[in-house]
Amino acid sequence: MDIQIRDIYKGFGSFPALRGANLDIRSGELIALLGPSGSGKTTLLRTIAGLEFPDAGQILFGGVDTAPLPVSERRVGFVFQHYALFKHMTVLDNITFGLRVRKSKNRPDKDAIRKRALELLDLVQLSGLEKRYPAQLSGGQRQRVALARALAIEPSVLLLDEPFGALDAKVRKDLRRWLRELHDKTGVTTIFVTHDQEEALELADRVVVMNRGSIEQVGSTSDVYERPATPFVFDFLGSVNVFPGTVKDRKLSIDGANVTLDTDNDHAAGAVDIYVRPHDLRVVEEGSSGFDVTIKTVQRTGAIVRLITQLKHNKEIVEVELAHLDPQAINRKVGESIRLQPAIYGLFPRASHDSVRTLPDVDPLAVPEHRERGRLG
Amino acid sequence: MSTASKPGRRKSPRSAIPGFGINLGFTLTYLSLIVLIPLAGVFIKSAGLGWDGIWHVVSSPRVLAALQLSFGAALIAALINAVFGPLVAWVFVRYQFPGKRFFDAVIDLPFALPTAVAGIALTSLYSPNGWIGQFLEPLGIKVAFTPIGVIIAMTFIGLPFVVRTVQPVLEEAEKELEEAAATLGANRWQTISQVILPTVFPALLTGFALAFARAVGEYGSIIFIAGNLPMVSEIAPLLIIIKLEEFDYAGATAIAATMLTISFVLLLLINSLQAWSRNRGGRK
C-alpha cells in the first residue's frame, strides 16, 4: 500500500517533535527513517501507526485519510524496539494473537490460525520453537517472533522501530540481511527507524534523513551519501571537512588559500561553506591549484590510509582518506608538506544552515551534474 | 609465604553469595522469636483442652457463626479489593491528573490510621442517620450493625495491600504491551483481559492474600460498625476477647488455634497458586 504523509506537525508539550513532514512512500518499498535521537523519526513512525496523533497534517493509506481510523483498525504491523512480546504466552500464542482477537466473522478457524502461525514460524526460521515462552529465547529469536506476530495480521504496512538496536553486532548483521530477503519475499511496504547510517544505507531502497523534526533529504542510498542536500546530511552520513569560502563571479575560492574552483551552478555570490569528504580530497603536485597542509598523523587501517593534516594558513585540522594503493598514499610521513585539492564537494551559504531548504527528490540519473556538485577548474 | 594458596577448610561448596549458614541461622532464630514461638504458645495452651474440648468450643453455634462471618466477609472484602484495587493502581500508573500525589498518599491512610478511628468514622457514615446511611436506609439497606458493615470495614483496611502490590508491576509492564495488542487489532477489553491481567495476576494474588489475611485478623475498625450481635455480626477475634474477659483462656486459644490453622491452609493454597502462575511463561 502506498502511503502519503502530508505536512505532519506534532509537539510534546513545548517540544516540537515533527515540524511539517512530507513524504511519499511507494507500495512495496523498504524505507529507512534515519536521524540522530530527537530527530522525530520514531514519532513519525508512531504517527503512521496511529500510536500518536498529529497536531496537523494528514496521513493517507492508499489515498484514504487514516485520521478516523484507530490503531487497531489500521492493519499496521508494528515491531517495537524491545519487542513487547506477551511474556505469559507461548511463541505460538504470541503469533496468533492478532488473528485470535478478530471478530468471529473475520476470524479464520482454529486449524487455519495454527497453520498460518506455523508457516510464519518457518518463514522467520524458528520452526519447532512454538511452545517456548519469550523468556526462553535469545534476543534475535525474540525479534523474529515479534516480526512473525506483526506479519500474522497481513499488515498493509510493516513498521519497525530500531529493529536491531538491542542486538549485538554479529546478530545485527545477519538479521539485517535476512530482513532484506524477507522483504523481497513478502513485498510488504516496510518502514524502519534507525540511527545507524550503515544499517540504513545497506538495507533500504530509499533513505529519509531527519533532523530536528524535519526531513532533510529523501533519496536512494547513493543520493544521500554522494549528493547530500544539506550540511546536516553531509555531516551525519560520514565525516566531512568544512572550509570557509567565497563565491564571486561564478568562481569559488577557499578563504586564505590560493585555490580557485569553478561553480557550474547558479550559486548566489557571497560567503559559503565548502563541504568535502575525507576521501574526496586528492593529493596534487606542487604548482596545481590547492591548499598546503602538514601531515600530523598517518593511520593505516585495512585498505584505507587516513591522514590527519593541518592547514598551513590557519592551522585547522583536515582529514584525508586515500586508498592504500593510491601512489600518493605510499610513503607518506609525519611532518611532510603536501598540497590538497577537493575533487568533489558541496556548497552551502554560510551561517544560514537552518534555513537550507530540503531539495526535491530528484533522480540523480536525470540530472547529469547535480547542482550542488562542483569540479575543479 | 602467602596464605592465599592454603587449601580451603570449606565444608560446603563455594557460592558467589557467602554467609549462607549464618544468615539462615539468623533468619530461623528471628522467625522463631517473633512468629513461631508465640504461635506455638497458642497451640500448646489450647492443647490443654484436648481434642474433645477444642471441638466442643469450636462447634458451638456462636463460634461457628463467628468463624463463618470472619472468613466469609474477609473473602468477599478481598475479592472486592481484587477488582477495584487494580483499577485504582492502573489509573495512578497510566494517567496524569491534578492532585495525583495527594490521592496517592490517601491510599496508604488505612495502613497508618488507628483502626478504631477508621471504625468510628465508618460507623458514623453508615449508621441510619449518617451521611451515607440516611440514603441507604429508605432503600431498606442496612449497613451499620450488619455483616455488610463488617465487609465494608474489611474492604477499607485491605485496599492499600492490593493497590501497592499491583502498582509496581503495572509500572514495570511496558506501555508497549498495550500498544502492541492494539496494533494487532485487539480492542480495549481484549487487551485488558488477555494482556494486562495475566501480567499482573501473580502480584494481584499476593495483594489478595495480604488483604484477606489482614481482614481475617482485623479487630479495631470492625467492632464499631459491626454492632456485634451474636450469630449475626460478631467476628471471631471479638469472640476471643470475650472469652479472655471471662478468663476462659483455653477457650480463647482454641478459637485462635482454629483461625490460625484455617488461615495457614488458605494462605498456603494462595501461595501455591501464585507459584504456579509465576512459573508459567518460564519466568524466574
Automatic annotation (TrEMBL), chain A:
Against CDD domains, the record matches this protein to: ABC_CysA_sulfate_importer (cd03296)
Entry-linked NCBIfam families: 3a0106s01
Q: What is this protein called?
A: Sulfate ABC transporter ATP-binding protein
Sorted alphabetically, the keyword list is: ATP-binding, Cell membrane, Membrane, Nucleotide-binding, Sulfate transport, Translocase, Transport
Q: Which GO BP terms sit in this record?
A: quaternary ammonium group transport
Where in the sequence is the signal peptide annotated? none
Q: Which Gene3D superfamilies does this chain map to?
A: 2.40.50.100, P-loop containing nucleotide triphosphate hydrolases (3.40.50.300)
The residues covered by the ABC transporter domain are 3-237
Record's superkingdom? Bacteria
Q: Which organism is it from?
A: Stenotrophobium rhamnosiphilum
Q: Which Pfam families match?
A: ABC_tran, TOBE_3
GO function terms (MF aspect): ABC-type sulfate transporter activity; ATP binding; ATP hydrolysis activity
Gene Ontology cellular component? ATP-binding cassette (ABC) transporter complex
TrEMBL record, chain B:
Kindly give the PROSITE patterns that the UniProt entry links to this protein. Answer: ABC_TM1
Q: Which CDD domains does the entry link to? A: TM_PBP2
Q: Which Gene3D superfamilies match?
A: MetI-like
Q: How does it sit in the membrane?
A: Multi-pass membrane protein
- State if Membrane is listed as a keyword: yes
What are the entry keywords? Membrane, Sulfate transport, Transmembrane, Transmembrane helix, Transport
Q: Which GO terms describe its cellular component?
A: plasma membrane
Pfam families per the record? BPD_transp_1
What PANTHER family does the database record attribute to this sequence?
SULFATE TRANSPORT SYSTEM PERMEASE PROTEIN (PTHR30406), SULFATE TRANSPORT SYSTEM PERMEASE PROTEIN CYST (PTHR30406:SF8)
Q: What does this protein do?
A: Part of the ABC transporter complex (TC 3.A.1.6.1) involved in sulfate/thiosulfate import.
State the protein's name.
Answer: Sulfate transport system permease protein CysT
Gene source species: Stenotrophobium rhamnosiphilum
**In the UniProt record, what gene is named as encoding this protein?**
cysT
